[in-house]
């Protein structure tokens, strides 16, 4: 009797539990959860938890707790952080289209003429066309090689300057010197002239450029919390941004006017402004290039091209002075190829294999863009079983990915040999090494950056022996970084150059 009552009851209860379980999972299936992440405060979310100079390190700590994909709330803007090669492939290759936007940030929008260029434009037809035009006409290998005489001339000048320091037993400030070299090369290829003052490494242009870089990465609270623009205004940020924009706008306009002057002496090689002005008159292009578009592209070249190359060469010299074994080996290879020549050209550099491995290893351990350049999702998508809403900011922590223990043996060590018998490269096919990003929005300046870096470093290492200033040991050289879009070495790298006796 009892069993005739109990049995259906137990059955009913079991069915009910199963039904509830099914409904719960159905909801999860239809609406997967957001990635896990640290709890934030109302309105500001996690904003108060971060310090921009060590953001990549703070995000690394969080990835240890929450995994290779986790979420953050930056004010009212959702964000995710990806920290493994596998997840990088998922977002930058399998879901590249969904993540090909860029977040709109006040400073970047203003200075990029409202995204009238490549780097900060939203993903749209204009971006597709301007990127295509620039890849074909500005960043192509043919154009890059047309600037080789400029590169050779400027690197030779730099070597001469260092020889001066060496003969007076002075110390060479490599941060200043390499930043000045990089901006001079970029100004000559882009604008057709140099803007550094002769004799002084820190010119007015250099100061202006520093301010441009600073404004590009300045934190505007209204980017994350609407209606707080008054705080940015009170802090004077709007005025500072407007001033910097006006100064650069005036500068670009002068450069354009100079190039349009019919009496201007025509250089042998066209600089980038020449090319862009020619394209402006080309009616067959799919977009009508305006002066603002041209100014936006010039801004890209200054912002994306100058700092990154300079910072990487400083990091390479930092890594070498801290690793005398590698310094010795790389110099032996370079000097074997260079012999008694006083200058290595780009063909000589192509014969170097250990040197190239050393550059890859520098990109691995010291990516100048530790978090790449933030992307933004254009639409909702599912990544790794998690729901990522539209308009979510994506950070890819390249610094952590480049130290992934499953991809790299002794990941913290500076060992160029790891690349000698390996096909792994930084061109975007290998997701464990992505200093230039990958996919639709990857860096179009890669060929130009690599050719400059190789030429500069090969000649610094060929012409001089490098020593620490008296009283310093290699452990005194730190690897702290400055906040910004590009991670510069915080404390200037100052070394003593000794001229090789037979040169
Ligand atoms: C060592 C040197 C350089 C490094 C490490 C570097 C790195 C990067 C990275 C990480 C991105 C973002 C990629 C992504 O979102 O997937 C990027 C984008 C970009 N870079 Fe570079 N870059 C370097 C040099 C240059 C140079 C020399 C130029 C131009 C003269 C340049 C122009 C650009 C532009 C225009 C973009 C935006 C691309 C887009 O949004 O479609 N970069 N770069």
From TrEMBL:
Subcellular localization(s) per the UniProt record: Membrane
UniProtKB keywords: Heme, Iron, Membrane, Metal-binding, Monooxygenase, Oxidoreductase, Transmembrane, Transmembrane helix
Membrane topology category: Single-pass membrane protein
Keyword Transmembrane: yes
Cofactor(s) recorded in Swiss-Prot or TrEMBL: heme
Pfam families, sorted: p450
A single Gene Ontology CC term: membrane
PROSITE patterns in UniProt: CYTOCHROME_P450
Residue numbers binding heme: 443
Superkingdom of the source species: Eukaryota
Record has Thylakoid as a keyword: no
GO molecular-function terms, A-Z: heme binding; iron ion binding; monooxygenase activity; oxidoreductase activity; oxidoreductase activity, acting on paired donors, with incorporation or reduction of molecular oxygen
SUPFAM superfamilies for the chain: Cytochrome P450
Family to which this protein belongs: Belongs to the cytochrome P450 family.
Identification of the protein by name: Cytochrome P450
Encoding gene (name): LOC100787727
């Amino acid at each position: 009797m009892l069993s005739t009552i109990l049995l259906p009851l137990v059955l009913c209860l079991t069915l009910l539990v199963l039904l509830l379980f099914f409904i719960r999972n159905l909801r999860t299936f239809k609406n997967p959860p957001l990635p896990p992440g640290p709890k934030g405060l109302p309105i500001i979310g996690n904003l108060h938890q971060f310090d921009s100079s060590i953001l990549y390190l703070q995000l690394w700590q969080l990835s240890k707790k929450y995994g290779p994909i986790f979420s953050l709330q930056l004010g009212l803007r959702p964000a995710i952080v990806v920290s493994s090669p596998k997840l990088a492939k998922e977002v930058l290759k399998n879901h590249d289209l969904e993540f090909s936007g860029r977040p709109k940030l006040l400073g970047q929008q203003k200075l990029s003429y409202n995204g009238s260029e490549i780097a900060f434009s939203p993903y749209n037809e204009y971006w597709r066309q301007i990127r295509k035009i620039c890849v074909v006409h500005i960043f192509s290998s043919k154009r890059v090689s047309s600037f080789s005489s400029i590169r050779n001339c400027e690197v030779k000048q730099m070597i001469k300057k260092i020889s001066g320091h060496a003969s007076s037993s002075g110390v060479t400030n490599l941060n200043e010197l390499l930043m000045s070299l990089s901006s001079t090369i970029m100004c000559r290829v882009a604008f057709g002239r140099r803007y550094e003052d002769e004799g002084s490494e820190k010119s007015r242009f250099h100061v202006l450029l520093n301010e441009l870089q600073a404004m590009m990465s300045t934190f505007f609270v209204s980017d994350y919390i609407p209606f707080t623009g008054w705080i940015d205004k009170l802090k004077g940020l709007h005025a500072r941004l407007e001033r910097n924009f006006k100064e650069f706008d005036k500068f670009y306009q002068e450069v354009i006017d100079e190039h349009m002057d019919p009496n201007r002496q025509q250089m042998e090689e066209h600089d980038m402004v020449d090319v862009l002005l020619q394209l402006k008159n080309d009616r067959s292009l799919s977009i009508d290039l305006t002066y603002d578009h041209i100014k936006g592209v010039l801004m890209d070249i200054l912002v994306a091209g100058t700092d990154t190359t300079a910072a990487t060469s400083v990091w390479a010299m930092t890594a070498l002075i801290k690793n005398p074994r590698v310094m010795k080996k790389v110099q032996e290879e370079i000097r074997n190829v260079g012999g008694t020549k006083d200058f290595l050209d780009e063909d000589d550099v192509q014969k170097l294999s250990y040197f190239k491995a050393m550059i890859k290893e520098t990109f691995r351990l010291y990516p100048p863009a530790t978090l790449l350049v933030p992307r933004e999702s254009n639409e909702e998508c599912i990544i790794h079983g998690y729901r990522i809403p539209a308009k979510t900011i994506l950070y890819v922590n390249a610094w952590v990915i480049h130290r992934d223990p499953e991809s790299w043996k002794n990941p913290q060590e500076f060992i160029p040999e790891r690349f000698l018998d390996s096909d792994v490269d930084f061109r975007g096919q290998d997701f464990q090494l992505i200093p230039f990003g990958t996919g639709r929005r990857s860096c179009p300046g890669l060929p130009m950056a690599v050719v400059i870096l190789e030429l500069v470093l090969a000649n610094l290492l060929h012409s001089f022996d490098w020593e620490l200033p008296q009283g310093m040991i290699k452990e005194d050289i730190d690897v702290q970084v400055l906040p910004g879009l590009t991670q510069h070495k915080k404390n200037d790298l100052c070394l003593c150059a000794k001229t090789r006796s037979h040169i």
